[in-house]
Amino acid sequence: xxxxxxLIVVALLAVILGITITSFVGTSSxxxxxxxxxxxxxxxxxxxxxxxxxKVTRLVFDFGNSSIQxxxxxxRHTLKKDTLGGDAASEAQLEAKDAAGASELRAPPATFxxxxxxxxxxxxxxxxEDGDDEAVKPVPLPRGIQFWQIDVxxxxxxxxxxxxxxxxxxxxxxxxxxxxxxxxxxxxxDKTGFMSVIVSPLTGKAKILAGRADAPKPRDESEASEVExxxx
Length: 232
What we know:
The protein is an alpha+beta fold. It is built from 2 helices and 10 strands.
């Protein structure tokens, strides 16, 4: 093989590699947008369900499985802003904490039952077998997309692993929240690989933004979300 032939082969390989990389980036960006739309749709469905059913509803964002589950409870449920870095607590747990002098808040009791998030959301999950409707499955994020950080009003600090919970109440209110998504393994400083879904506490509307965006802090108490189930 002559030098000219070698140069031609190298040039062709560079072109092919460039096309492959461009295609991969384009596909990943499309999946990131799809994931953001999926999160926004889940917020819309949960907000509507809580309002229509009169039940406290929540979205469970699972970092380990990169999935979203919707759950609801018939029990009265009150959230209290956590200054200790734990999960939300129920009324019974708060009373027990006060009585026992506990030093931290624990996760809510297992009174929430999963409900089908796909119904009404228009979510179609790729590569899923038809006919398996026995269990209520969580909705996965598109392949190659991960939760980066979730900041909800009742948490003192943003959540980056485990599970994060966003609550919706029958009175038509939810929590101030930011759900940040990223293309898998994107570095923190690379803003192009991130998108954010910002949730308005008073209207339940979800706004999709490019990059990493934090939830706006309420200017005063009147703008803060109401975090108590008003009862039925």
